[in-house]
């Protein structure tokens, strides 16, 4: 297929280790590149949490208007804003889901995951036929792999001092760290399973159209748009979730090409930088995200 060849050229040109699963919903055409291999999800693991929440909402176990009393002990390092807000704030379940997805709020994520339960999220994935989505770690546990102190309840100057001492988390993660392992001891999935999950959301099977559309409405509001949407025409609707930690750059979601054409695209990238100089690292990140944007535009053009 011409699309697969074009994407492989982008990967080779940019020297990226990448897994990609593309499915055109209307025709069923697929492009799979390393799609059955495990990749670290980083914050893409928040999509299965959203799906489990939709099942609980449909079952009446929780309601969008239910509120949570924010405590300092709930807070995680950012992404997000809850870590910077005062104890006693009472965000709703809908607020937490929205914050978790559209700005990848790590505090909202662990509040939801603690309430829903890691085991329940995984059991739901298995019930949906997704055998290769694994979530052994909360966000707090992920940060514990790279930082000596995961308590963010300290003056902002101290937070940034600690981050500086960690030599920027982008560059300091050891090659043998748990968060870059490709085994189920890390939060990993295959690109194909993530594309299958988005396919179930689009098809209204998580668990029904009402709550699947609810999930899509949140995913449409994504504020982190420098990967899949990077080179898409202005105004293109994308329901997606990014993931970033250390040498991991991900994005997965649905491109609404037009009313009659929809493309599910899951991209998981691992990269290595031969330099620790911050500018060189950021130039490499820019290159990776450009490549991801190129892949998304190729998929868009192939099915428009």
SSE diagram, text form:
Blueprint: H1 2-14, E1 17-24, E2 30-33, E3 39-40, H2 46-59, H3 93-102, H4 106-116, H5 118-127, H6 139-144, H7 156-165, H8 169-172, E4 188-189, H9 191-202, H10 209-220, E5 237-245, E6 248-258, E7 261-270, H11 278-302
Antiparallel strand pairs: 1-2, 1-7, 3-4, 5-6, 6-7
Give your account of this protein's structure:
A hairpin with a 2-residue loop joins strand 5 and strand 6. The chain has one domain (2-302): DD-peptidase/beta-lactamase superfamily (Beta-lactamase). The chain is globular. Residues 167-171 have low confidence and may be disordered. Helix 2 (46-59) packs across helix 4 (106-116). Strands 2-1-7-6-5 form a 5-stranded antiparallel β-sheet, with helices on both faces. The protein has helices at residues 2-14, 46-59, 93-102, 106-116, 118-127, 139-144, 156-165, 169-172, 191-202, 209-220, 278-302, and strands at residues 17-24, 30-33, 39-40, 188-189, 237-245, 248-258, 261-270. Helices cover 42% and strands 15% of the residues. The longest helix has 25 residues, at 278-302. It is α+β, with helices and mostly antiparallel strands and 304 residues long.
Question: What is shown here, in short?
Answer:
This protein is of the alpha+beta class and 304 residues long. Helices cover 42% and strands 15% of the residues. A hairpin with a 2-residue loop joins strand 6 and strand 7.
- Determine the N-to-C terminus distance: 16 Å
Strand content: 15-25%
Main-sheet strand order equals 2-1-7-6-5
Q: Indicate the structural class.
A: alpha+beta
Which fold name fills CATH's third level, the topology? Beta-lactamase
Mean pLDDT: 93
Number of strands: 7
The description of the largest β-sheet is: 5 strands, antiparallel
